[in-house]
Amino acid sequence: MLYFIDVIIPVPLQKLFTYSITPAEATFLKIGMRVAVPFGKSKIYTGIVAKIHNEAPTTYEAKDIHQILDEGPIVNEKQLQLWQWIANYYMCTLGDVMRAALPSAFVLESETIIVKNTKTIDETILKDDEFLVYEALQHQSSLKIHDIANILDKKNVLPVIQRLIEKEAIAIEEEVFEKYKPKLVRYVKLHIKYASESALENLLNNLSRAPKQHQVILTLFSISATTKKPVKFADLTKESDASASIIKSLIDKGVLEEYFIQTDRIQYAGDDNEDSKKLNEYQNTALNEIKESFKEQSVVLLHGVTSSGKTEVYVKLIETVLSTGKQVLYLLPEIALTAQLITRLQNYFGEQVAVFHSKYSSHERVEVWNNVLNNSAKAQIVLGARSSIFLPFNSLGLIIVDEEHETSFKQFDPAPRYHARDTAVVLAHIHQAKTLLGSATPSLESYFNAKQNKYGFVEITKRFNDVLMPDIELVDIKEKQKKKLMKGHFSDRLLEEMTETLREGQQIILFQNRRGFSPIVECNTCGHAPQCPNCDVSLTYHQYRDQLRCHYCGFAEVMRKTCSACGSPELDNKGFGTEQIEEEVKLLFPNSKVARMDLDTTRGKYGYEKIITALEQQEIDILVGTQMLTKGLDFRNVKLVGIMNADNMLNFPDFRAHERSFQLMLQVSGRAGRTEERGKVLIQTYNPHHNILQQVSTNNYIDMYNEQMNERYNFKYPPVFKQIKITLKHKDYTKVETASIWYAKSLRNVFGDYILGPESPPISRIRNQFHKNILVKIPKKQSLSKTKEAIIKINNSFLSIKDFRSVKVILNVDNF
Ligand code: ADP
Ligand code: ZN
Ligand code: ZN
C-alpha cells in the first residue's frame, strides 16, 4: 500500500500539495506535525500535515518528504478547522493562514544558510560529497541549500548536510531543525555535605575569617527561609551585597553548588494573589444577566460606559470558567495590552496568566504556544492581541473581546485579512465556548447583532463609585478666531481650563488625531506642496529630524529651504500634529512637564509603557497624544481632556468616519475624571452643531446608532450589507485601469448594481503602484458563499488573461 500526506506550506497555493511517505513514516506521522518538504525546483519548506491517505495525486508525481520535524502534533484539529474557516471566509489560502498562525521560529525555510564551523576537523573523515561542500565553504563564507544542491548536482542534499553537521564540519546559521531553547536561570544551593547541623556549624566557624563569604551563607539561609523557594544567583549577589566572584569562589570550593531550572522568559514577578473585588450592584446585575444570557446565546455584548468596571466583571466570569477546568482567551487591541492590565490580572490569577504580544520575541511566543498546547497551568488565561486566536487551545471555555469596537482587530495586510473579533466568535463555536464582547462604544456591527437578537445584550450605565460622566463642552474655534481669542491652536477656554487644572495639581491629556509636526508644507508663493516620489501623497514635516517624510512608504528627505517648483523661500506649515502641539504647550506652560505619545515616541518594546508609567507616577503634567491614548487606560489624576480639532476626524473620507469619531472622542473623554472628581472635556471644532459632536457631548450612543444606521441603510453599507473590497495594483496606470474596468464589468454581469467602481482611492499611488478599488455589496439575503464562488470564478478568468497576469489582486472581505 502506498502512503501520502497533504501538506500545508506557507505559500499562497489554492490546493494542498501531496507528498509520498513510507509505511514507517505513515505510522509515525500524525495530522498537525511538521515536515520538511521540497517544493518547486530547489526550495524546502516547513509544512504542516493536514491529511494522511492512500491516494496518489493524478496530475503530478508526489515527491518524498525530506524529514519529519516533530515527535507529536504542534497544531491541533480544532486549529486546522479554524484555519479552514478563515481561508474560506476571508478568501485566502491555508498557506497564508499558516504563516500568520505559527510563530516564525516554527516555519524556518529552505533559505537556510550553511556556514563554516570555526572548529578545525580531520578532513580524512569526510566522504567525497561531504568534502566538496566542506571545500566550497573554505572559499565562501556561506552557502544556501540550493547552492549545495548545485555543487553536488543532486536534489536531496539534507542527509549530506546532516552528516556534515554531525561531524562538526559545518554549522547552520538559521537552523531549520533548531529546537527552541528556554532561557536558563542560575540558582545556588548549599552543598549536600553541609546538610547536617554539625557540618554547617563547622563550615561557619571555618568561614569566620572570611566575613564576606560568611555573610553570603547567612543570606542564603535567610532568603530561602522567607521565600521558601530556590535561591537565584542574582538574588544572592544582590541581597548579600557580595560580588559575583565571592560567590563563585564558594562554588569553586565546593561549599555552594550551582544549578539551573528551566524558566519562562515571560514571568510573573508579583506577590501573593489578591482576591477579586466585590462587585457593586450594577456590576452584579450585569454579571448575572451575562450568565443568564449565555444559557441561550453563545455571544453577549456588554455595553458599559467608560470606567463602569467592566474589567472586574470579566474577572468574575473568568473565575467561574477556570473553576470548570477550561481555558480563557482575553483579546485586546495590541496597543491596549499594557502592563497596567497585565498586572491587574496577574494580581488575581498569578501565574495562570500568559501574555501573547507582537512585541515579544519569537522565543517568548514559542514559550506561550507550548504552554497553551500542553494546557499548562501557566496558560489557563491568555491575554493577547489579534494573533492570539491562533494559539493551540484544546479546551476553551470563554473568549472575552475587550474594546470590541476597535478597528485594529482587523488585519489589513497581508492575507489573511481577518477580523479577530469575528474570528473569535467562530473559534469559540468550535470549542463550544462563549464569547463576551465588551465596549463603552460598541461597533455598529455588534450593536446591530444584539438588536437582531443574534447576540445577547447587557448594559452598565453608571461609572464605578458613582463618578459622574465627564462634562463635555464644545468650543467653536471659528468664532474664537474671529474674536482673536486663539493662541496658536489653543482657544481661551482651553487655556483657562488647563491653567485651573494645573493649579489644582491635576493632569491634562491633549488629543490630536495626527502625528508629525506639521503634516503638510506648502509654498506661499505658488501653492506647491512637496510630494512623495513613490506615492500620491504630500510629504509631512517632522521637526525633530528636520525631515520631510512619507507615512506610506517611509521615504524621507531633508527639509527643503526653497520651493522646488518656483524657488521661493516662503515655505509654510499647514495643518498641525502632536509635535507642534507639544511645542506650543511648552511655550504656553513653561513650568509644566510635557510629554508626547505617538508612533514616533513609542517605538521599542517598552516605549509605550514608559510614558504610561510616567503619567501614572505623575511625572507628566500634560500629555499630548494620538489615538494611542484612547485605549482602555485607567489613570487616577487626569482631570482635563482637550480634543484639539474634531473636524479632521469627522471629515475623513470613509463611511465609518462618523462612527469612529464618536468612539474616539468618547474613549479619550473617558480618560478624564475616573476617580472622585468629575472630569472635564473640551472639544475644539469649526462645526459645533455637527450631530456627532452633539451626540458625543451628551454621551448619546443610541442617537448616534440610529442616525448612522439610517445612513448605512440608505447607502447599503455594513452592517446592513456585507461588502468585499477588491483592489488591483500595478505600476502602469493604463494597465491597472483597463484591468479594473474588465474586472468590474465581469462582476456587474453577475451582480448588477451592487458593484461600485472601479475607483481610484484617495491615495491612488503607493510605493509606485497605482491602485483601483472595486466594491461588491452583498445584501443579507444573498448567499455569501455563492457570491464568493462567483468572485473566485471571475478572478480565475482574470488571471488567465495574459495581459493582466502581472496585475496584483487583493480580496478584502468585510474591509475596513
Ligand atoms: P472599565 O473597564 O469599564 O473602563 P475598569 O474595570 O477599569 O472600568 O474600572 C474602573 C476603576 O474602578 C478601576 O480602577 C477599578 O479598579 C475600579 N473598580 C471597578 N469595579 C470595582 C469594584 N467592584 N470594587 C473596587 N474597585 C472597582
Ligand atoms: Zn511614499
Ligand atoms: Zn513655489
Automatic annotation (TrEMBL):
Chain residues that bind Zn(2+) 1: 523, 526, 563, 566
InterPro entries: DEAD/DEAH_box_helicase_dom, Helicase_ATP-bd, Helicase_C-like, P-loop_NTPase, PriA, PriA_3primeBD, PriA_3primeBD_sf, PriA_C
Hydrolase among keywords: yes
Gene3D superfamilies in alphabetical order: P-loop containing nucleotide triphosphate hydrolases, PriA, 3(prime) DNA-binding domain
Cofactor note: Binds 2 zinc ions per subunit.
Binding site for Zn(2+) 2: 532, 535, 550, 553
Record has Transferase as a keyword: no
Catalytic activity: ATP + H2O = ADP + phosphate + H(+); Couples ATP hydrolysis with the unwinding of duplex DNA by translocating in the 3'-5' direction
E.C. numbers: 5.6.2.4
Domain Helicase C-terminal: 494-713
Cofactor(s), names only, from the UniProt record: Zn(2+)
Helicase ATP-binding domain ranges (all copies): 291-460
SMART domains referenced in this protein's UniProt entry, alphabetically: DEXDc, HELICc
Top EC class, one word: isomerase
Record's keyword terms, sorted: ATP-binding, DNA replication, DNA-binding, Helicase, Hydrolase, Isomerase, Metal-binding, Nucleotide-binding, Primosome, Zinc
Protein function: Initiates the restart of stalled replication forks, which reloads the replicative helicase on sites other than the origin of replication. Recognizes and binds to abandoned replication forks and remodels them to uncover a helicase loading site. Promotes assembly of the primosome at these replication forks.
Subunit structure as annotated in this protein's UniProt entry: Component of the replication restart primosome.
Family recorded in the similarity comment: Belongs to the helicase family. PriA subfamily.
PANTHER family found in the cross-reference section: PRIMOSOMAL PROTEIN N
Name of the molecule in the record: Replication restart protein PriA
Organism: Mariniflexile jejuense
